């Protein structure tokens, strides 16, 4: 857990590993009524989907997600939807509340994606995934893997531009919450935490 303060509001950031099933119980155990609100890097549409998801839903992962899962499973069982985020939604529902979305809504994200990611980024992604399958990553810890995986993803110019937009948006949402909340628990994927902290730091 990472703690900081902004505008008199205590912000606790819980970095999570997307995909690991073991993250579900870890995250759920951190959510209690000691915070004014729980925020998560999901869109409002994602939160609704997680809240009303049938048990037998099936997923068709992209090549990018499939390769990610291939490596991540070395650290434990992998599941979809993201167990860490599902834990946030489930815990809030049990407490009679709803998590606050930090991610762009679907319409905003689609517009940002189309603006940033070009055809050549998609072509480069295929080459990068082939190289990753051949050369691998630092698998000493999940965090070490994620740092190298994220660096690979952001070596694509369009993906990096999209990442920066996401981090800026998420930080702005957190800052907006500090105007009327005294304490916030923000559940954020590990690989985005440093960038979001930098964005928050620029506003301190």
How would you describe this structure to a colleague?
This protein has a five-stranded mixed sheet, with helices on both faces. It has helices at residues 23-28, 44-51, 63-72, 83-94, 106-116, 119-135, 142-153, 157-177, 190-201, and strands spanning 2-6, 9-16, 37-40, 100-101, 183-189. Helix 5 (106-116) packs antiparallel against helix 8 and helix 8 (157-177) packs across helix 9. The two termini are 20 Å apart. The chain has nine helices and five strands; from the N terminus they run ββαβαααβααααβα. Strand 1 and strand 2 (9-16) form a beta hairpin. By secondary structure, it is α/β, with parallel strands linked by helices. It is globular and about 45 Å long.
Distance between the termini: 20 Å
Give the biggest beta sheet: 5 strands, mixed
| Strands ordered across the widest β-sheet | 1-2-5-3-4
Count the DSSP helices.
Answer: 9
Point out poorly predicted stretches.
Answer: none
Tell the overall outline.
globular
Quickly give the structural class.
alpha/beta
Strand content: 5-15%
What is the ordering of alpha helices and beta strands? EEHEHHHEHHHHEH
- Mean pLDDT, rounded to whole units? 91
- Percent helix: 40-55%
* β-strand number: 5
Radius of gyration: 17 Å
SSE blueprint:
Elements: E1 2-6, E2 9-16, H1 23-28, E3 37-40, H2 44-51, H3 63-72, H4 83-94, E4 100-101, H5 106-116, H6 119-135, H7 142-153, H8 157-177, E5 183-189, H9 190-201
Parallel strand pairs: 2-5, 3-4, 3-5
Antiparallel strand pairs: 1-2
Helix pairs in contact: 5-8, 8-9
């Amino acid at each position: 857990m990472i703690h900081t303060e902004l505008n008199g509001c205590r912000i606790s950031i819980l970095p999570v590993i997307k995909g690991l099933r073991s993250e579900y119980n870890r995250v759920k155990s951190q959510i209690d009524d000691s915070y004014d609100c729980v925020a998560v890097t999901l869109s409002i549409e994602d939160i609704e989907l997680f809240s009303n998801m049938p048990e037998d839903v099936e997923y068709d992962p992209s090549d990018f997600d499939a390769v990610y899962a291939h490596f991540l499973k070395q650290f434990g069982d992998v599941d979809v939807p993201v167990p860490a985020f599902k834990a946030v939604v489930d815990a809030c529902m049990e407490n009679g509340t709803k998590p606050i979305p930090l991610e762009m809504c679907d319409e905003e994200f689609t517009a940002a994606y189309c603006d940033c990611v070009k055809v050549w980024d998609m072509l480069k992604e295929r080459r990068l995934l082939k190289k990753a399958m051949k050369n691998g990553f630092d698998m000493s810890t999940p965090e070490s893997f994620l740092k190298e995986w994220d660096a690979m993803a952001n070596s694509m110019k369009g993906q990096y531009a999209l990442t920066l937009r996401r981090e800026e948006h998420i930080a702005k949402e957190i800052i907006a919450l500090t105007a009327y909340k005294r304490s916030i628990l923000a559940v954020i994927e590990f690989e985005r935490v440093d960038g979001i902290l930098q964005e928050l730091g620029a506003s301190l």
